[in-house]
Each structure stands twice: as C-alpha cells, then as structure tokens.
C-alpha cells in the first residue's frame, strides 16, 4: 500500500510539475529604448501617446546570423507605455518584456505637460518588472525621430544600444548629467527641480549634450552643455573634465581631476550662500608664443594660470546661477535640500515661499584652482 | 513525546531573531517614515530597549517557578478559567499572525517571482510545507529557527552591504527636529515589527544548562534585531528621500532593485532577495504556527498538538485569503494582529508579574 502511494506521488510529480509556461530568452522582445510622443493623429481614440520601441534583433547576433538588421524599431499608440506595448501584439511575433529597458525618451511636447510626465513616471515606478535605474532623456524634437534616427547611426552602434552606452558616461563628460528614474523622482521630492540630459540627432548621429530643466514634473526650458557643466560642478557630479581658459593671450587647457563644491550659509537674514568650488587639475595643453621657451617654471606663472582658470570657471557658474535664478527660478543646485538638512531653522522660515526667496537669494561663488601637475613637458 | 525536549541558550537566540525578523522588515522603513519622518531609528531603538524589561519579566516568571512550563505556571497564577480566556486571546493572536504572514508572503511572491501562479497555490503549498515542522515539539522548532538564523543574517547583510556604496547619509539630517508628539505612534509601529519575541514563553522552560545566561542571550538577540532594523532603516533613508519612502510599500525591495553594483555584473537583485526572504518568512511562520497549535491543544486539554496543526491548515488558509486586497489585509489582518500582539507581548507578562507579586504579599 505504501509503495503504491509512493509510486503514485512520484508519477504525479512527473506529469504535474515542470516549466509548463517557460519562455525562452529568444522568444521575448527586450526593448532597450522607448520613446514617448504625443499622438496628434485625428483618429487617436483616446490613445494619447505615440510610443516607439527599439529592440535588438537577436537573429543578427552570433556566428550564424540569419538577419542583418541589428536593431528594429516599431511604433505604436496607446494611453500609456504599457497600453502601447499591448497594442503592438497584433504585429509582433513575441511578447514585449520590459525588465531590461534601459532608456526612456520623452519628447518636448510630452514633457511640457506635467500631467503626462507624472503619469509616465508613476507608471514606471509602480511597475514590478521595470528596473528603477532606467535612464531618462528629453529630446527637443520628437522621440520617434530620435529612435528611428539612431538606427541610421552606424558608427555609434553597440549591442547595448546607442543611447544607453553614451548615457552611462564612460567618457566622464560634463556635457550632460545622466539621470535615472530613481534619481529623477528623488530630485522632484527633494527640491522639485531636476535636469534630464537632452538628446537630439545631429546629422546622422545621436548627440547628447545640455539638459532640459524640469520643475514640478514639467519641462520649463533647456540649458546648454556649458551651463550643465556649471550645475554639475555645484552638485559634485563631475569626476573629470577639461576646462579651457586664456592666459596671456594664449589658450590654456586644464584637465580638472577633482572637483569638490561646498555650500555655506553666510547670512540667514538675506539668504546669502557661498559656493566654494575647489578644483585640482593638471595642464592639458599650453602653447607658448613663438620665441619664448621658458615654459611653466615660476610659481607666479602657475598662480596666474590658476587665476585665469578660476575666473573662467567662476564666470560660467555665475552665469549658470543667473539663468537658474532669473530665467527659470529653478533650484537645480539642491539649495533647499541643503538648507533643510543643515539649517532647518532657516528652512522653516523660507519654505513656504521658496520660489521668491530663491529668486532673491544672494549666491556667491568662490573658485579655488590648484594646478598640481604640468604634464610631461615644461 | 515521552522524552523531555531540550533547548540551548544559543538556540534561544536563533529562535528569537528568526521569529521576529519576517514580513515586517520589508515595509518597516515605510511605516516609520509616515509617522516619524527621517527619525524612525529613534523609535526602533526605543522599542528595542523597552522590550528588555519584558524579557526580564518573562525570565523572572520562569525562574521563580523552576521545572514548570508556561501552561502550568499560567494555570497556577490565574486559575483555570481566566487562564483559558488568556489562552483564547493568544490563540487568536497566533492564528492571525500566521494568516497575515502567509498572505503577505503570497502577495509578494506572486508579484515578484511567480506572476502567473494563483495566490491560493502559493499560500496552500507554503502552509503545507511548514506544517510538517510545526507538528514537532519546541526543541525541533528552536533547532529549525537556529538553522535558518544565518540565512537571516545573510539576507540583512546583503541588503545593507550592497546599498552602502550609493547611499547618501546626509538624508538623515537634520538630527534635532524630532516630533515628540509622534513618538508614541512610531513606538507602536516599531513594536509591531518586534512581535514574535513572546515565543520564548514556550522555549524558556526547556533550557537545559546555564539558565542564568538565558536572559543575557535573549537581550543579545534583541540587540541584534534592533541593529538589523536600524541599519535597514538607515540605508533606506539614505537612498530615498522621506517623501519617496513614505510612498513605497516595500522600500527594501525597491532599494534592491535600484542597486547597480559597479561593473554592472549584478543587477535586478530582487529575485535573489525574494528567494532568501521566503526562508526568512518561513522561520517566522513556523514558530507562530507551532504556538497556535500548542495553545489550542492546551485549551482543549489534549496531549499532543499534532492534529491541531492539521486542523489549522484550512483555517489559516481561509483566513489568509479572506481579505480582498492589500488595503483589506491591513484592516482585517494587520490591525487585530497589532492589538493582540500588544496584549500577548506586553500586557500578559505584566499581568503575570502583578499577580505573582500580589500572591507573594498575601502569603506573607
């Protein structure tokens, strides 16, 4: 009796268990970039977005590739990203699986409307599958153009996707500051202001530089690469960058390897805050005028060079701060966060009308450059 | 069971840690930020400290009644009828405990690991699998808890370690703006996540040697739990701002999802953490399940709780699946769990102490 029971159990395990609903990895479509546009078509039927998915074509990989096209892009409409993926099922051979989604592109028209941005961000954050570290990007034109455009960018082709490989920023650039979904939400909660890198097609190539400024989940404007560098410096977001200045009429290029900024509240009454930017670096390139072969060998000369760089950096930061204060009234430099954490009493007084206080705040910039090395030559 | 079960001090420690750390650890940072802002660690530490006197009382009760177990002492101090009422309250508590734990497990496993498996299957198979261990006596339960104890430390260790590189500890600032009016609420929230330590009521009488250091080892376990909770809370706060933490139902899972270790070779660690977490939950569920069976068997004066465990399978199953959605889970299962937990965890030991002290005075 016992043996018969055991047999029955083993037998039933054979037939009732197993991966009956398994999905092979090549039977799924893994989009790595998704672009969201506003749907302007007449027959939109409540589908407010046009969503572009781009995914790698796995049949083009490996030794015995059967197809040549390495990336495909498809367009769909829907009331959300998930709805659009759902609507695509009629012309895709495999289901879309978003676990490895890397980049989300918001078009200008979508980003200008806070309702859209809030909805999209909420959807992404609520979903169980989507990775919260996906990179967000804003494009001044349409996302469709960017995603279909990147198919043509043959030189920049990589297996993980063009946008993503540029965004993870192995080149240590300060032209843009990558921002993940989690960072974006964090920024919005802390200061209500965030910046997303701006991507566009320049001729046939994807170009990411500058940023779109978001305030309360709404795109309010763009800044260029130079201003983005200013913000990144103040936020300690740069690992290394080149700084160009002029010294004695010649070009001087510095490679800044260590940039640290400290905020300091000087006057609580008028909200006077000092930014102390400390830069360590080395000389990148410095051509002397013809006939002068002394090189960089006096301390005064080095000091003067440092001063030239200091002025250059300071000018840029002051300019950036002015744009943030006067043009956008957007606290992208985490000033409110700083006050809340380190000066809670001051913050209590100003938090109710922070926008006006920020507009009037006296922001002082102090730059300190130390050129530690001059390179291999004098 | 003719031979007496034996338990060692280190197993007591394992039992407390593995029973207490369970479902709550995933959502504790969220519930605490709702009341305490970024000062949740204050109430975790406070709750941990406040539990130490309770542990002392429980130890004291057993010390002055050597050789007797919890049920004998209870009957002697309160009398049969009152003690039966107490036991009924405890029964409700442990059954609700089980139902809440297994339902939360089912919800999360379905969402994160097995999206197409019906929750009924997850819940039922979990109860069936654990019921085997729960039919044994306390020594086996304690050994089971001690066996799973390193897995819990591993779970907590992974969560804390992987999140340190990207943490921003300035989120803990400012340090001095504690809202004192919220402390009782926060304390209650923290206390709930310490529920389960009353399991030592069943285990303490069977400690074989070194009875004096039992108190020390239970305090040690409590300190460990407090440390794990505080560290988890701190890394969560360091990753999310207060607003975001208040919005997230399971911040620890979200945290693990967001971790991106350098080199990108490990991403999406939620699967691993969930798999470990199932074991963590099992180590909470089994002692509670055992306790429910034991208490019921004493109510009906049965010799063994073995069959009670089997009878409890459908009861826990239906109770766990009764709430319709996550909001109802909180209303129907979590709220009574909090109240009953307070009654068995705090009020019961205090009652014991008061009655024993009064009896002593009267005798004199």
Tags for this model:
heterodimer; A: alpha/beta; GMP Synthetase, Chain A, domain 3; 2 domains; five-stranded mixed β-sheet; 34% helix; globular; B: 364 residues; mainly alpha; Amino acid/polyamine transporter I
Strand count of chain A: 12
CA gyration radius of chain B, whole angstroms:
20 Å
* Spatial shape of chain A: globular
Query: What is the largest interface, and how many residues per chain?
Result: A-B, 16 and 21 residues
**SSE string of chain B, helices as H and strands as E:** HHHHHHHHHHHHHHH
Strand arrangement, largest sheet of chain A?
3-2-1-4-5
Protein name (chain A): Ger(X)C family spore germination protein
Main location (chain A): membrane
Subcellular location (chain A): Membrane
GO cellular component, one term (chain A): membrane
What does this structure look like?
Chain B: It is a multi-pass membrane protein. Chain B: Pfam families: Spore_permease (PF03845). Chain B: One of its GO terms (biological process) is spore germination. The complex is a heterodimer of chains A (378) and B (364). The mean pLDDT of chain A is 83. In chain A, helix 8 (225-234) packs across helix 9 (299-328) and helix 10 (335-342) crosses helix 11 (344-350). In chain A, strand 9 (241-247) and strand 10 form a beta hairpin. Helix content of chain A is 34%, strand content 29%. Chain A has 2 domains: 27-223; 231-373, GMP Synthetase, Chain A, domain 3. Chain A has a 5-stranded mixed β-sheet with strand order 3-2-1-4-5. In chain A, strands 9-10-11-12 form a 4-stranded mixed β-sheet. Chain A has helices at 2-16, 81-87, 108-111, 114-126, 143-152, 162-167, 181-190, 225-234, 299-328, 335-342, 344-350, 354-360; strands spanning 33-38, 49-56, 71-78, 103-107, 135-139, 193-202, 205-215, 218-223, 241-247, 250-267, 272-286, 362-373. Chain A is an alpha/beta fold. The longest helix of chain A is centred in the last third of the chain and has 30 residues, at 299-328. With 364 residues, chain B is mainly α. Chain B has a single domain, classed as Amino acid/polyamine transporter I (Up-down Bundle). Chain B is 75% helix and 0% strand. Chain B contains 15 helices and no strands. In chain B, helix 1 crosses helix 13 (270-299) and helix 7 runs antiparallel to helix 13. The longest helix of chain B has 38 residues, at 326-363. Chain B is globular, with a radius of gyration of 20 Å. The two termini of chain B are 39 Å apart. The model of chain B has no long low-confidence stretch (mean pLDDT 86). The chains are: A alpha/beta (378), B mainly alpha (364).
């Amino acid at each position: 009796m016992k043996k018969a029971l055991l047999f029955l159990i083993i037998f039933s395990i054979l037939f009732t268990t197993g991966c009956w609903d398994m999905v092979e990895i090549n039977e799924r479509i893994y989009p790595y970039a998704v672009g969201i546009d506003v749907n302007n078509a007449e027959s939109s039927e409540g589908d407010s977005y046009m969503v572009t998915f781009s995914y790698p074509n796995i049949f083009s990989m490996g030794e015995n590739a059967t197809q040549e096209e390495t990336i495909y892009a498809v367009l769909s409409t829907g009331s959300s990203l998930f709805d659009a993926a759902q609507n695509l099922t009629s012309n895709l051979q495999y289901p879309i699986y978003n676990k490895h989604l890397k980049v989300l592109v918001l078009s200008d028209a979508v980003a200008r409307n806070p309702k859209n941005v809030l909805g999209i961000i909420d959807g992404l954050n609520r979903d169980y599958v989507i990775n919260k570290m996906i990179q967000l990007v804003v494009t001044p034109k349409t996302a469709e153009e960017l995603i279909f455009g990147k198919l043509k960018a043959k030189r920049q082709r990589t297996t993980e996707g063009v946008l993503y490989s540029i965004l993870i920023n192995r080149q240590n650039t300060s032209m843009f500051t990558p921002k993940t979904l989690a960072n974006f939400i964090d920024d919005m909660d802390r200061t209500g202001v965030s910046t997303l890198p701006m991507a566009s097609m320049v001729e046939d190539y994807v170009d990411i530089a500058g940023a779109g400024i978001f305030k309360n989940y709404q795109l309010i404007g763009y800044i260029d690469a130079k201003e983005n560098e200013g913000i990144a410096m103040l936020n300690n977001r740069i690992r290394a960058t080149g700084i160009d200045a002029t010294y004695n009429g010649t070009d001087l290029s510095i490679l800044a390897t260590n940039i640290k900024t400290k905020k300091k509240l000087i006057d609580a009454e008028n909200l006077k805050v000092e930014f102390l930017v400390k830069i360590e670096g080395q000389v990148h390139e410095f051509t002397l005028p013809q006939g002068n072969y002394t090189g960089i060998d006096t301390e005064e000369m080095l000091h003067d060079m440092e001063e030239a760089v200091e002025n250059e950096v300071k000018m840029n930061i002051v300019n950036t701060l002015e744009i943030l204060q006067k043009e956008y009234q957007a606290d992208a430099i985490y000033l409110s966060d700083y006050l809340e954490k380190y000066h809670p009493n001051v913050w209590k007084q100003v938090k109710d009308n922070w926008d006006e206080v920020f507009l009037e705040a006296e922001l002082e910039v102090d730059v300190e450059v130390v050129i530690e090395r001059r390179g291999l030559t004098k | 069971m003719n031979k007496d079960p034996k338990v060692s001090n280190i197993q007591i420690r394992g039992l407390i840690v593995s029973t207490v750390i369970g479902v709550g650890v995933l959502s504790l940072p969220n519930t605490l930020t709702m009341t305490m802002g970024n000062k949740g660690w204050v109430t975790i530490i406070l709750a941990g400290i406040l539990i130490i006197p309770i542990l002392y009382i429980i130890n004291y009760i057993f010390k002055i009644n050597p050789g007797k177990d919890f049920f004998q002492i209870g009957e002697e101090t309160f009398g049969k009828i009152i003690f039966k009422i107490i036991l009924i309250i405890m029964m409700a508590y442990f059954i609700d405990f089980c139902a809440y734990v297994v339902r939360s497990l089912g919800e999360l496993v379905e969402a994160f690991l097995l999206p197409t498996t019906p929750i009924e299957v997850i819940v039922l198979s979990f109860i069936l699998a654990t019921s085997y261990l729960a039919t044994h006596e306390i020594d086996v339960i304690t050994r089971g808890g001690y066996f799973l104890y390193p897995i819990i430390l591993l779970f907590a260790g992974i969560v804390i370690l992987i999140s340190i590189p990207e943490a921003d500890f300035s989120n803990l600032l400012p340090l001095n703006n504690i809202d004192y009016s919220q402390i009782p609420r926060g304390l209650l929230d923290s206390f709930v996540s310490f529920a389960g330590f009353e399991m030592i009521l069943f285990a303490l009488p069977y400690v074989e040697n070194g009875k004096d250091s039992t108190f020390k080892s239970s305090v040690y376990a409590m300190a460990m739990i407090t440390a794990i909770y505080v560290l988890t809370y701190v890394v969560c706060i360091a990753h999310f701002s207060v607003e975001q933490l208040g919005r997230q139902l399971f911040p620890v899972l979200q945290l693990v999802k967001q971790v991106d270790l350098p080199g990108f070779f490990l991403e999406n660690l939620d699967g691993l953490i969930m798999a470990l977490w199932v074991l963590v939950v099992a180590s909470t569920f089994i002692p509670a399940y055992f306790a429910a069976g034991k208490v019921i068997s004493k109510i009906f004066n049965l010799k063994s709780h073995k069959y009670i465990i089997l009878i409890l399978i459908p009861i826990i199953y239906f109770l766990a699946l009764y709430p319709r959605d996550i909001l109802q889970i909180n209303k129907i299962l979590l709220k009574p769990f909090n109240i009953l937990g307070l009654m068995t965890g705090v009020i019961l030991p205090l009652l014991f102490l008061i009655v024993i002290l009064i009896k002593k005075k009267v005798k004199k």
